[in-house]
Design a protein that fits this description.
Residues 1-136, 150-274 form the UspA domain. Pfam families: Usp (PF00582). It comes from Actinomadura bangladeshensis. This is Universal stress protein. By secondary structure, the protein is an alpha/beta fold. The chain folds into two domains: 5-136, HUPs (Rossmann fold), CATH 3.40.50.620; 149-274, Rossmann fold, CATH 3.40.50. It is 40% helix and 21% strand. The protein is built from nine helices and eleven strands. It has helices at residues 13-29, 50-74, 89-97, 120-128, 161-174, 190-203, 207-210, 225-232, 256-265; strands at 5-8, 33-38, 80-85, 102-106, 133-136, 149-153, 177-183, 216-221, 238-245, 253-254, 270-275. Strands 1, 2, 3, 4, 5, 6, 7, 8, 9, 10 and 11 form an eleven-stranded mixed sheet that branches. Helix 3 (89-97) packs parallel to helix 4 and helix 8 packs parallel to helix 9. The longest helix has 25 residues, at 50-74. The protein is elongated and about 75 Å long. The protein starts with a strand and ends with a strand. 42% of the residues are buried.
């Protein structure tokens, strides 16, 4: 059974842009699309009179139907379904992530570099989902207009295989190249540059052989990882980062300061790939 690409639908312009990206990936990877709208207001707990609840459910079903028709208009070959969930939207998306290839959300917020471009639903989803999460920013282009570069931020650790593999697979399907970015956060000597470049090469070992059609550029930067990734996002189709799962059950993932900064300020969509090792 093919796992679907899930996209959160809430009626905002951000959600429609997320739908563009989700539908594009679904077509390229021949996967079904599942449009999900979650809301606690839909709970049948007596809070809302029955007639009002039926009207509310009808409105939200119409919203999902409109989104589905939009996706099918762009890609008539899509296998697209909808699901209305009477639960907090973040929890609804995390629940769907158990059996999904990817969860896609649109970013929300006040705007501006100093403002938060990423809302609580997206943050909760990125931190708790069991599959990769694609976060589509308000400034993201349409998929067909996106640059042909996918940026990955590499620390040189042993548990980075999941997101590197995801990025190479996506680059192969898009016809994109990879920019492997290793930022050290300060000035370094020529000798240290050689050492850092060797570590970056070791992190990429084997991927060029498995993905011979994917061109790879390497960059060792003296900027902090967050600064380097945000800067690189200006000319990228995607920034792909990894997240380590916390030890405590149900605690979610330790997104870390770098991932938080990238999610809030990247100029292109960001993919957070959990490490399940």
């Amino acid at each position: 059974m093919r796992t679907p690409i899930v996209v959160g639908i809430d009626g905002s312009a951000h959600a429609w842009r997320a739908l563009d990206w989700a539908a594009d990936r679904a077509v390229r990877h021949r996967l079904p699309l599942l449009l999900v709208h979650g809301s606690r207001a839909l709970l049948d707990d007596g809070t809302i009179p029955p007639d009002a609840l039926r009207r509310l459910v009808g409105e939200r079903e119409d919203l999902l139907a409109e989104a589905r028709q939009y996706a099918l208009k762009l890609h008539p070959e899509l296998d697209a379904e909808t699901r209305l969930v009477p639960a907090d939207p973040g929890r609804a998306l995390v629940e769907e992530s158990e059996h999904a290839d990817l969860v896609t959300v649109g970013s929300r917020g006040q705007g501006g570099f100093e403002g938060l471009l990423f809302g609580s639903v997206g943050l909760y989803t990125a931190a708790h989902a069991r599959c990769p999460v694609l976060v589509v920013s308000r400034s993201a282009p349409y998929p067909s207009d996106a640059p042909t570069e996918i940026v990955i931020g590499i620390e040189g650790l042993d548990d980075e295989h999941a997101f590197i593999e995801w990025a190479f697979g996506e680059a192969a399907s898009r016809g994109s190249k990879i920019l492997a970015l290793h930022a050290v956060g300060g000035e370094f000597s020529p000798r240290r540059r050689v050492i850092e470049d060797l570590e970056l090469s070791e992190s990429l070992a084997g991927y060029r052989e498995r993905y011979p059609d994917v061109a790879v550029d390497r960059l060792v930067s003296d900027r902090t990882p967050a600064q380097a990734l945000v800067e690189a996002s200006k000319n990228a189709a995607l920034v792909v980062v990894g997240a380590r799962r916390r030890r405590a059950p149900l605690a979610g993932m330790a997104l870390g300061r770098v991932n938080h900064t990238v999610l809030h300020h990247a100029r292109c969509p960001v993919v957070v790939v959990p490490n399940h090792d």
